[in-house]
Amino acid sequence: RARTTEERERVFERLHENGRELFARLGLTRVTVADLARAAGIGKGSLYQFYPSKEELFFAIQEREEAAFRAALVDELERAPSSREAVFSLLVAVSARLERHPFLRLLLDPATLGALMLRLPADRIEAHRQSDQAFFLGLAKRWKRRGWLRADVSPRRFVDVLTAMFVMSTQEQLVGQDTLRRAADEIAHAVADRWC
Asked: What is the pLDDT of residues 132-147, one digit of tens each?
């Protein structure tokens, strides 16, 4: 049946809210389209009017989580009392990202990652990767213009270090949470001293 714009928006929000909860609890591979539709109060076929697959819905939720993370991060960094404190806070936040945003942790599951790679268009995944890069490159360039980063710190290196800090955080089960936090703190202090 035809839906009003307001009805579509309500269904869209229910899909996101309930989908987030179902995916977080059960994982992508165990959630069915029927589960998602039922939770949103729509028919199974109606879900496809919003998303071509449950993987697309999952990825849309992930991107929404990412946008919220970025907004909160920028807000936190803008309040930093110094450039050194901003760099330190950024590095610690990136290394604690999985802890602060558990939905992101779902992407570490090989079955979830495999399903996304199989079902999502490659250009959609690449656009997301480019968006991540552009966000952090833009941050580095703004900080350089402000004088918050030394002239010899390249935006590319800035992104590389942030990427390495995030990848390090994916090894928490291997090294332990305390070790990871101590290492992240030590690295963040050293990098902040070097960059500012």
From this structure: 999 999 999 999 999 9
